[in-house]
Every structure is written in C-alpha cells, then in structure tokens.
Automatic annotation (TrEMBL):
This is Guanylate cyclase. Keywords: Cell membrane, cGMP biosynthesis, Glycoprotein, GTP-binding, Lyase, Membrane, Nucleotide-binding, Receptor, Signal, Transmembrane, Transmembrane helix. Pfam families: ANF_receptor, Guanylate_cyc, PK_Tyr_Ser-Thr. InterPro entries: A/G_cyclase (IPR001054), A/G_cyclase_CS (IPR018297), ANF_lig-bd_rcpt (IPR001828), ANPR/GUC (IPR001170), Cyclic_nucleotide_synthase (IPR050401), Kinase-like_dom_sf (IPR011009), Nucleotide_cyclase (IPR029787), Peripla_BP_I (IPR028082). Its main location: membrane. Its EC number is 4.6.1.2. It is a single-pass type I membrane protein.
Length: 1122
C-alpha cells in the first residue's frame, strides 16, 4: 500500500510538470529601413510575447508551454547564422529571421537540422525552391504574389505595354540589392513570360535627381504609358513632379503605380510636405498614381490587438495608426506553429520532429490576427493586396479594390471607382490614339491633301479610261469578226483520199482525224481508204469540220466565244483559223495534223514508242491542258485520245474544245443504246455521269479524270479500259457496263496490276481518277510531275532521239552541226584520256596515230611484286564490300606513293601489286634504286595502315624484287593490253612468294645493281629453294643510308655495258645447275598482262598519272589471266 501511494504521487507530480517548447526569435535589434521594412526586434518582441501568452493561456498545447528567446542578428549574414548554430540543439523553432541575406543561410542549415523556420519576411522568389529551404514557411506572402497582383490589375484595364522604375543601391552596394529590386524583378519576370505583354525596366540609386528622372521617363514612355514605380515616398513624389512638368498628368494618357512594401509608411496624403512650395503641383500629379500595398485588416479584433500591443509596448514604439501587417504577421507565425505542433502531438508525434510539424503547417488555412492565413503546398502564404486611389474631393488615398490571392482576381469595392487624371472618365488605352510618338496623328498640309486628291482623281480617271478603251476595243474586235471565213476563200473543198482510222468516223461531235499521203510512211499497213474534207485556206492546208446546222444565230456570246477561239495560240493546242457561217457552207477551219490522232498512233503496232516518246506525249498533253485551263475557256469538257492529234513534227495538240453549240448536231439525238454513245463516255468523270444536265464544257477536275484514262491508254497501247473483265464471269466488259460501273461509285477503274510502267506513273493515274474531284491534282501539279519523268526529253530535244520534229531546226542546221562537232571532239578527248589510262602514253600515242606497236626488248629493268600474307583468311572473315573497301584504301595509298618515283604500275590482281621501273622509258640503272626506295616507302606506309573494319589487325605486306631483261609489247587487237614477257617476271614473282611478311626480298642481281649506289643496307638471307630455279642466294633490303661518294645520278647515266656483265655473272652464279629448257617468249616465259580497265564507281580511287589503276575484283582479273 505504501509503495502504491508513492508511485501514484510520483505519477501525479509528473503529470503536473509542463514540457517547455522553445521559440528562438531572430531579428535585428534596431530599425533598418533599407533592409527590413521597419521590422525589428523591438516591435516584434511585444507581438510574439502577446501571441505566446494568448496560446499558453488558451490551452491549445495541453501539457506544453511556449518559451521565447531573442537574438539580435543585426541584419548580418554572419551574426544570424552564428546565433542559429548556437541555438539549433536547444530550440524547437526559429521565428524569423527578417533580412533576406540572413534567411538564406539560416533556412539552409535549418533544413539539415530539421528545425522549422517561420518568418513574416523573406519575400524573394529564390526562397520558393523547397529542395534548398525544406523547413521554411513564409506567412506574409512574397514578391511573386505582388507580381501576380500587378498582372491582374494590368489585364483588368487591358494594358499590355508597361515600364518599370525601381530604386537600387548605388553608394551602398555592399548591402546587396534593395527590396524594390527583388519586387519589380519578379513583376518584370511575370510580364515578360506572357506573350501578350511587353515591358521595359530602368533602375536608379541614391544620387539620381530630377534631371535623370526626366531622361528615364522620356526613355521608358517611348513604348509605354503605364509606369510602375518602386521607391520611398519622397522619391515617388519627386518622380511624379517630373512627370507633371512633362505634361504627363494633364494629358490623361499616363498611369503611375506605386508598389508600397511597408504599410507603416502609408500616408493618406503622401503628396503633402509641410512648407513645400510644390504641394499643389504634387497634389495634381498624385491624381495619376495608384498604390499597391499589403492588405491591412479592418476588423475590431485587429484594432483591439493593435491597441493592446501598443499599450503594453508603448505607443511611441509604433506611432499612430494600426500596427504594420509585416509586424503583426509574427503573431500568425507563432499561432500557425502552435496549431501544427498541437496536431503533431495529438497524432503521437514529438515536438522535436520538425519535419512533421512543417508538413502540418503547409497546405492549410487558419484564422489569424491578420485575417485568413492560407498557406499553399509550398509553405508560402497566399496573401491579399489593396489598390489605393486618391479621392478628388478629400485628396486622401483610399482603398478602391482588393486583390484576392487565393482567387487570383481583382475585386472592386462597392460604390467606389478610380478617378483618372486629366479629367478622363475611363481608363486610358494601352496605346494612345496618335501612337506612342504621335506619328499617327501628324497634320497634313493643304497642299499635300490637294495633291493626294488630284492624284487619286487622275488614277481613277486613268483606270476608267483603260477599262473603257478595253471595252470599246473588245466590241470593235467582236464587230470586226476577224474569225469569219468567206466561202470563196476556201479552196479545193472536195473529198480527197487520205489514210486514217475508223475511230474518226464512229464518234460524233469530234474533229475528223485524217492522214494525208505525205504521212503514209508511218502507216503503210494496207488499212482501208477513208474520205474526209480538207481545204486550203490562205495557202495553208486546214481540216474542215462541217457544222450540222441550217442556220447560225450570231449572238453576242457566240461572237465573243469565236473571238476567244481565234485569239488562242499555243504549241500544244490546235489552231483555230476561223468559221464559215454562210449556209450551206457552214464549217469550222482548224489546224491540220497529218500524223493522226493519239488513239490511232497508240493502236498502230508498227509504230514503236519508247518510254521517252510516251513521256513526251504526256508532257505535251499536260502543257496544252494547262493552257486551256488558264485561258478564258477554263476547261475542255470532251478530252479523249481521239481528240488529241499529232502534227508532222510529232508534237501532240489538243482539238475539239470550245464552240460546243456549233459542234453539236441539230438533228436527232444520238441513240443512247448505241455502242458509239457509250464508248464516247469512257473518258467522262463519275460526277459528270451522275448529273442529269452536266456542264456543256465540262469541269477542270473532269478533264483531269479524262487525262488519267488517256495516260492508261499510252501505257498499255490497248485502247481505253483495256482488258477490263467482269470479276465473276471473266467476260470482257462492254462500254455500257464500264460507264454504269463508274457512275455507280463502286470504284471501278482501269486495271493497273498487270501493266509494266514506273510506280510514279501508276500512282499518277490513281490520283487523277480519284472518286472525289477535290482529291485530284490540277494540271499545274501534273506538269511538274511529268517534267520529272520526262527530264531527259526536257534537256535533249526529242528530234535527236526520234529523227523527227525536223522543222523546228530547219533554220539552225549550222549551229546544230557545230554542236555535234563539239560533242564529237569532246568524246574523242575522253576516249584518248581513257586510252592513256589503259596503256603507257607512248604506246597509246602510236595506236592513235594508226601505227603498229612493235614489241621492245629492255636490257635491264627491276620488277616489284607484293601481296598480303593471310589475305585469303581475311577475305573469308570479311564481307565482300569490306574487302573491296580494304583493297581500295590500300591501293589508293600505294598509288599516291608510287607517283613520287620513276616507276610504272603494271597491274593489281586481288591482293597482288606489280610495279616495274626502267620501261617503257629507260632510266639507266636508276630502275633498281627507284624500286628499292619505293619498296621501303610502301613498307613504311603499310605499317601505319588501318583496316577500317578490323582496326586491330596489322596488314602484313610481303615484297619481292628482281632485276633483269624483259620484253614489253601490246597483245591483241580487241581490247589491247600492255604485257611484260621474260624470265625476270617469273623470278620476281618467286622472290615475293618465298619472302616473309613485312620484309623486302631481294635477288642477287638486284643486290648487285643496288651495290653500285652504295647507299642501301642489305642483309644476307642465305640460300632459298626457288620453284623452277633451284637454290638461290637472296638478301633482305633493310633501308638506305645517305650517299657518301657523290650523286648516284652520275652512276645511273653510266654505260649499261659496264654493269651488264656483272649482272649476267651473278645471274649465272645463282642459276640452278640443271640445263635450261628451250622456250619461246610466248609459251614458257611468264607474262603479266594489264587487266581490262572498267569504268569504276566514284567511291573508288581515280587513275593517276600514267599508272594503270585496276579495281580489285579478283575473280574478273583471274578470268582475264586465264
């Protein structure tokens, strides 16, 4: 019982002990208006003490009590962090700091310590980054909200051009930037981020006076009438006085905004300074000013709070009026923390869990002493602001609107309105009526007005005169009837025999296609005789189209159409000569084209049409239709292959267009069940077939459909809708069935699957016969497409390829001959260049001159052979293209090296490379030295050569060389080749095949020749068994040293007789003991021909100098060798 009583007493004692919650207040002890908007420890202390007393007495934190500690930061970025370091282990929360340059380090450290930081300052935008300031909570808003308030105000009045003026430190630059710098910096960033707003800014400092203010205002207002100012009240007054002197107030075009960051400095009459002579001017200037400031609560609770704090702290500390919201907000800071702490403790948390407490403070709302405290998800208060305007009756500033931050909206108070300067009754526009510089309202002199009026009158008179002239000229041309042909002007109107086709007679309403006797060379196929009317009009043979009408009414529309037909002139449109309208000889006279219609040509199998000719016909057709569509006729309406005729120069021309009323027969309508009727509709577009009364002249999109059918005819040469069969019965479709299928919209079109043509042509046809007219291209687009297909014919006249259109060049034969001569000489030059690449120049020159090339013996030459060790396995492990690229890279490298030596490249076969020196141009004994030096250069180059697809592999070059006599000559008449004959070739090849990788194998004869120069370093290899030679003493060429006994050139010019005996002796000494076999040069002696030259692609190396550059295509060359 006694122990139980003791325990109960201890527990009761523990329950009665309050836990202490320590709040550390960090603020400067003295007021520093340049950095803290009047917030100091003397004013903040009574506010937070009042808050702590109220919270402790309210029971908000049962079992806990708040205790305060105060530290003077002196607004120093040094002292502030030091106090925070000293307190962070014993404090639960930092209230403050005030200055931005102190908040930054303290908040960073607090994020690491997980200690909450709650401040009524820290307005800079940089503090929004919570990854850096994770425990910082701001309860007085920020500059970003001030910027949003300004944007909402400007948008409300439709102002999009603004200018910003703000104070920043100059002499006191050590203090950093001013609050105005941060505030208007945020405003400027918000405005410039919006595409609809344009803004400019300018700063000033303590030394700026009225003269500079005038310059700044004039500069900023060049592009704006809205000026936002941020400075102290005296500076704002000075700026407005300057604006008044510039007539910016009386004009009513300018509006000034003042961003007031310190509510304690607000004055109802900021324009008034006792005893100042400019008070009246300032009072007028302030009528153009609107002030934006933090919203001050106007509630009984706030007034009681303000009075109670002043009573305890002393009124002289705060002055008259309510306490500044920037100071009273610290009450809300303590209340917000206490509320979050209470919720944390209720949830089982601890007061030291700063992270959890911070989460409870964010994204919530409480009722504070300054009103509703809305904290967003980022820990920033969504503050409200007030817009103030000067009352014109009392000349005192009053609130006219509030910016509600949580709504992002400007709300005006009831029964209040803004009074604008200059006597305006509404807000000034964003841009003045006369523009920013007044250029839109420039006065015009009377002389200029008179000049403009007279000029306008003269222009109108000239235009009217031009229209009248054109009208009367047109009427005169219509009345003159230049198209009219009298009967007596038509000669030999008789039936004459011409060769032609039945297609011209079975159709109705189209020009009769005829072929005169002068064109029978093309159509000499024994077809039947047709009769058609032709005539001679003014010495020109013309086609006569009878008009089946007993009487022709020459109305004005008819006369106008006849004139337009007469005026049409184009290379691909049949020329209209005129019409005879005198009964009974009524007829139309058009250009006569003797080669017949396009349909006749396509169906004549004796005429061979290559694709160039077909593209040319399509191109002519497109150009003619494009001209018609761009003319006043607008469309053809009856386009088909039988209405396209070809003249004597094989130029396609379009016929049977226009004058539809004259071409139609006046007799009975054509039998709608006849074969000819339905066949005539095979080219008609589906939308026209569905019309009960289609346009007489058709439509442009309908012409495009007809063009597609004609293209199909040109491609197949089997008539329209060739090989069209019923998919069920497989029977050929009749014209009626085809027309009905097209009309029904089932998508019936000519077959393209089994025709042989370019994909572009097939796609072109499908686009042109699309069901929807809008999906079909116009002839302008078709012209560009056909031009691409016909590009060869565009660059070279078709006369050169078809031996036709000769009349186009009848007067230019001399020029044509010169061009052909130039072409011949150019081709001759190309052939000679190619021959010089195939053969040595001296040999090629003899062949060009027609001389026979006699084989020549050379007493002493040096032959070089090389190959690549392991090339077969390398080729097997590589792709064929990689092998080609390897050899091309290697031989390109070799070719560039051998150009520096007096050598001749004979051939490349696969990986084998053969070079000779001493022929065809003799060079004394220099051939051995040239080959030796070249070998050393090639060996050095190959050691640094990189294989593109196998860079890790080292290319192993094996070189052999031998000196001796040989015979060189040209072999064969067809594709002659320059070949080397003799045992020297065999021996050089054996030297290479018996050598070693990355070494130069030298025969005794070559060594003897090199010893004459005394500069080459050779090493004895010893005796080597040579196939067909027996044992031979050979050497390795290691390098060359500088000459010590004079120039080798003198030795090279010595008589060969002095050297030949020694060479022969060495050759005899090294020869096998077996007796030599009898042989002939062409049978036993080895020869290596020059491989056939092929035209090589651009990615291979080009032939250089006189060396024979052969593509490394091994199978081909081996075949040549065989």
């Amino acid at each position: 019982v006694i122990w139980a009583g003791v325990v109960l007493s201890w527990l009761a004692g523990v329950a009665c002990v309050d836990r202490s919650v320590r709040l550390s207040v960090l603020a400067p002890n003295s007021t520093n208006p340049t950095q803290n908007r009047g917030q100091n420890l003397q004013q903040i202390r009574p506010v937070v003490e009042y808050a702590v007393q109220a919270i402790n007495s309210s029971g908000l934190l049962p079992g806990h009590s708040l205790h305060l500690e105060f530290r003077d930061t002196n607004c120093s970025s040094t002292y502030g962090p030091i106090h925070a370091f000293n307190l962070h282990n014993v404090t639960d929360v930092f209230i403050g700091p005030i200055c931005e340059y102190v908040i930054a380090p303290v908040a960073r450290y607090a994020a690491v310590w997980k200690v909450p930081v709650v401040t009524a300052s820290g307005f800079a935008d940089h503090f929004i980054h919570r990854d850096e300031y994770a425990t910082l909570t701001r309860v007085s808003g920020n500059y970003r909200l001030i910027a949003k308030c300004m944007v909402a105000t400007l948008q409300h009045f439709n102002w999009f051009d603004s200018a910003l003026m703000y104070f920043d430190y100059g002499l006191k630059s050590s203090l950093g930037h001013s609050d105005c710098y941060f505030a208007l910096g945020s405003v400027f960033q918000q405005l410039t981020s919006m595409n609809s707003h344009r803004s400019r800014s300018q700063s000033f400092n303590e030394t700026t006076g009225p003269v500079r203010f005038k310059e700044i205002l004039l500069e900023l207002t060049e592009k704006s009438r809205i000026v936002v100012v941020c400075a102290d009240q005296r500076t704002v007054r000075d700026i407005l006085l300057v604006a008044e002197s510039l007539n910016m107030i009386d004009s009513g075009e300018y509006v000034f905004f003042n961003i007031e960051l310190d509510t304690r400095k607000l004055s109802l009459t900021p324009w008034y300074i006792e005893g100042d002579k400019d008070n009246e001017r300032a009072k007028k200037a302030y009528t153009a000013l609107l002030t934006v400031t933090s919203r001050t609560p106007d509630t009984p609770d706030y007034r009681n709070f303000s009075d109670e704090v002043k009573r305890k702290a002393g009124k002289e500390l705060f002055g008259p009026g309510p306490i500044s919201t920037f100071v009273s907000a610290f009450y809300d800071a303590v209340l917000l923390y206490a509320t979050a702490l209470n919720e944390t403790l209720a949830a089982g948390g601890h007061q030291s869990n700063g992270t959890l407490i911070v989460q409870k403070m964010w994204n919530r709302s409480i009722d504070g002493i300054t009103g509703a405290v809305n904290i967003d998800f980022n820990g920033d208060r969504i503050a409200d602001y007030s817009l103030m305007d000067m009352d014109p009756d009392t000349f005192e500033f009053r609130i006219v609107a509030h910016y509600i931050g949580i709504k992002d909206k400007l709300e005006f108070l009831n029964n209040t309105k803004i009074h604008w300067a200059g006597g305006r009754t509404s807000a000034p526009p964003n841009r003045p009526e006369c523009g920013f510089d007044g250029s839109l309202c420039q006065t015009i002199s009377p002389f200029l007005v008179l000049t403009l009026v007279l000029s306008s009158f003269l222009v109108v008179l000239a235009i009217a005169s031009a229209f009248m002239y054109r009208h009367y000229k047109l009427e005169a041309e219509i009345a003159s009837m230049t198209w009219r042909v009298m009967p007596n002007e038509i000669g030999h109107v008789a039936q004459s025999k011409f060769r032609g086709s039945m297609h011209s007679l079975v159709r109705r309403g189209s020009q009769l296609t005829v072929f005169s006797e002068d064109g029978v060379s093309l159509f000499d196929n024994g077809r039947g005789q047709m009769f058609v009317s032709t005539a001679v009009y003014k010495g020109v043979q013309v086609a006569v189209r009878p008009i089946d009408k007993s009487r022709i009414d020459l109305s004005r529309p008819m006369l106008l159409e006849l004139k337009r037909m007469k005026d049409l002139h184009h290379d691909h449109v049949v020329k209209f000569y005129g019409a005879c309208v005198d009964p009974p000889n009524c007829c139309l006279l058009t250009e006569y084209c003797p080669k017949g219609s396009l349909q006749d040509i396509l169906e004549n199998e004796q005429i061979k049409l290559d694709w160039m000719f077909r593209y040319s016909l399509m191109h002519d057709l497109v150009k003619g239709m494009l001209f018609l569509h761009q003319s006043e006729l607008k469309s053809h309406g009856s386009l088909k292959s039988s209405n396209c005729v070809v003249d004597s120069r094989f130029v396609l021309k379009i016929a049977d267009f226009g004058l539809r009323s004259l071409r139609e027969s006046s007799g009975s309508l054509e039998d709608c069940e006849s074969y000819a009727y339905w066949k005539r509709l095979l080219w008609t577009a589906p939308e026209l077939l569905r019309m009960e009364h289609p346009p007489p002249d058709g439509t442009q999109k309908g012409d495009v459909f007809s063009f597609a059918i004609i293209v199909h005819e040109i491609v197949t040469r089997q008539g329209p809708w060739a090989n069209q069969v019923d998919p069920v019965t497989l029977n050929p479709l009749t014209p009626k069935e085809i027309v009905e299928g097209v009309r029904s919209g089932t998508g019936l079109r000519p077959t393209t699957s089994d025709i042989c043509c370019d994909e572009e042509v097939s796609a072109l046809m499908k686009r042109c016969w699309a069901e929807e007219p809008a999906d079909r291209p116009d002839f302008n687009t078709l012209k560009a497409t056909i031009r691409k297909l016909n590009k060869d014919n565009e660059s070279n006249n078709i006369l050169d390829n078809l031996l036709s259109r000769m009349e186009q060049y009848a007067n230019n034969l001399e020029t044509l001959v010169e061009e052909r001569t130039a072409d011949y000489l150019e081709e001759k030059r190309k052939c000679e260049e190619l021959l010089y690449q195939l053969l040595p120049k001296s040999v090629a020159s003899q062949l060009i001159l027609g001389q026979s090339v006699v084989a020549e013996t050379y007493d002493s030459v040096t032959i070089y052979f090389s190959d690549i060790v392991g090339f077969t396995s390398l080729s097997a492990e590589s792709q064929p293209l990689q092998v080609v690229e390897l050899l091309n890279d290697l031989y390109t490298c070799f070719d560039s090296i051998i150009e520096n030596f007096d050598v001749y490249k004979v051939e490349t076969i696969g990986d084998a490379y053969m070079v000779v020196s001493g022929l065809p141009m003799r060079n004394g004994l220099n051939h051995a030295r040239e080959i030796a030096r070249m070998s050393l250069a090639l060996l050095k180059a190959v050691q640094s050569f990189t294989i593109r697809h196998r860079p890790w592999d080292q290319l192993k070059l094996r070189i052999g060389m031998h000196t001796g006599p040989c015979v060189a000559g040209v072999v064969g008449l067809k594709m002659p080749r320059y070949c080397l004959f003799g045992d020297t070739v065999n021996t050089a090849s054996r030297m290479e095949s018996n050598g070693e990788a990355l070494k130069i194998h030298v025969s005794p004869l070559t060594k003897a020749a090199l010893d004459k120069f005394g500069t080459f370093i050779l090493d004895l290899r010893g005796e080597v068994e040579m196939k067909g030679k027996g044992k031979m003493t050979t050497y390795w060429l290691l390098g060359e040293k500088e000459s010590t006994d004079g120039s080798p050139t003198a030795l090279a010019q010595a008589d060969l007789s002095e050297v030949s005996p020694s060479l022969k002796e060495n050759e005899s000494a090294s020869a096998p003991s077996t007796p030599p076999q009898p042989s002939t040069p062409m049978q036993n002696n080895s020869f290596v021909p020059i491989s056939n030259q092929r035209f090589q692609s651009n990615n291979l190396s080009k032939p250089t100098s006189n060396h024979n550059n052969v593509s490394a295509t091994t199978p081909l060359l081996q075949g040549d060798m065989a």
